[in-house]
Fold this sequence. Notes:
The structure is a single chain. Helix content is 84%, strand content 0%. The protein is mainly alpha-helical and 79 residues long. It has one domain (2-71). α1 packs antiparallel against α3 (42-69). The longest helix is centred in the C-terminal third of the chain and has 28 residues, at 42-69. The chain is rod-shaped, with a radius of gyration of 19 Å. The two termini are 21 Å apart.
Amino acid sequence: MGLVLGRSLALVLVGLAFGLLSAAALQRLVRSLLFGVAQYDVLTFSAVPVLLVSVALIASYLPARRAASINPINALRSE
């Protein structure tokens, strides 16, 4: 289960890094589209990654838990 969660977390962190760097680079466009948000809004730039990591970990934990509960012998015999 740790292997699945670790790989999914690595993918999420790579995506978040790319997204945050893109958002910082395109901040002028973002500022013109979102009214009432500062140029570098700390709340937005910190709350969104926390929310995305939480959702990604929950989304990967549920299938990993189900896969870990299956007996490997039965899984190999079914294929």
